[in-house]
């Protein structure tokens, strides 16, 4: 019997990634759990477990480095979730941030009218049960709550539905405090909330999620050039992360899809197990947002170009807007692989492996003593203590070594270090590579540098 049967039957291993397999692996290995599961779960909300929070932090870190550290003219911000309610009147969200909603009178299913076939809509026929559909009505996606003890209209406040507005209302502060000159950008990662009508496909569409947004302020007239440049840069970013590029494509918004603020918009779409879906948007938001905030706040939000005779204008904004949690789902799906390894002559021996880029993997190195006894565990712990400073490490001493490798493959750990009897004699350890399963002997003294080198030169092989 294969050692894998402890985790999954060989039958289940065969075939392609499905959303069910992804969801189940994510739960089993502590990446993502359903929110409030003991109470039956809360729709549209998910909790990130020990491996999930590490993965999420690393994805956020990679984006942050890309957008701020690698650009001299992009700075960061962390604005509050609760903003003055006028913000959302100015932004157009109170009026326009709606989805068209229909209900089935018979089975009580609820649909977004733009996501069911037109013929069902015209015939008012439920796509699930054939029952009668209600008229389409507009439903505002913002979560409303109250601030302070009185629950009246004066105390209404919203949970932000996007992080962008926190950037716009701070744009003048940042110009002044950081002496920014156009063109420049402001990057932000944070929570956003949308009362989504239909939440399905795991963490793809949730009511509480995180966004990674960068707003780039440019001179009107140069916006189309910057729009093209940012499309190029965002595409190159996913290539750098080692994402399967044939699973990514562009989708340009047609006139009926464009948001109220946009002059032009492209989505980067990813081929998820359920099909092509939006991953990130690149939008030319024109001077709409700053123009509206000028109007609603009464503050002058023009940029004064001191290098150009104090020319004044409201900048245009190019936005790159990616979901952090949706990126995590994409990276998880992209990394997921089932491979027939046929070890020990067993044709049915499959493994599940998450081929995360080592920069993103929640655990970089796992240290495994071959045996607990004869001082091997102590030696392995000692090596872990040394590597801890530089890498996210795990330690596992229980079970057969093959089974421990499989556990690390499922967690996406790119490197395993095995400590055996030879290690005690000659100071070498085994370094095992997740993707190729190749094993080499490395002197302990060179281990950290060798791992560093492997991360730097990492190329995905499958
Ligand atoms: P969709 O068409 O999928 O509803 P959108 O066009 O409304 O998305 P944007 O407002 O452009 O999305 O948001 C930017 C990014 O934020 C999206 O590309 C996506 O990655 C992420 N995002 C938006 N809504 C959600 C959600 N409900 N759950 C998770 N991520 C989301």
Name the strands of the widest sheet in spatial order: 3-9-10-16-13-12-11
How large is the count of helical segments? 15
Uncertain stretches of 5 or more adjacent residues: 1-10
Which hetero ligands occur in this complex? adenosine-5'-triphosphate
Mean pLDDT: 93
Q: Helicity, in percent? A: 25-40%
- Overall shape: globular
Portion in beta strands: 25-35%
Number of DSSP strand runs? 23
Which descriptors apply to this entry?
27% strand, single chain, binds adenosine-5'-triphosphate, alpha+beta, 5-stranded mixed beta sheet, 7-stranded mixed beta sheet, 15 helices, 462 residues, disordered N terminus
Describe the overall structure:
The protein is α+β, with helices and mostly antiparallel strands. About 30% of the residues lie in helices and about 25% in strands. The strands form seven sheets. The protein has a seven-stranded mixed sheet. A five-stranded mixed sheet has the order 20-19-21-22-23, with helices on both faces. The chain starts with 9 loop residues before the first helix and ends in a 6-residue tail after the last helix. The N terminus is likely disordered. The structure holds adenosine-5'-triphosphate (ATP).
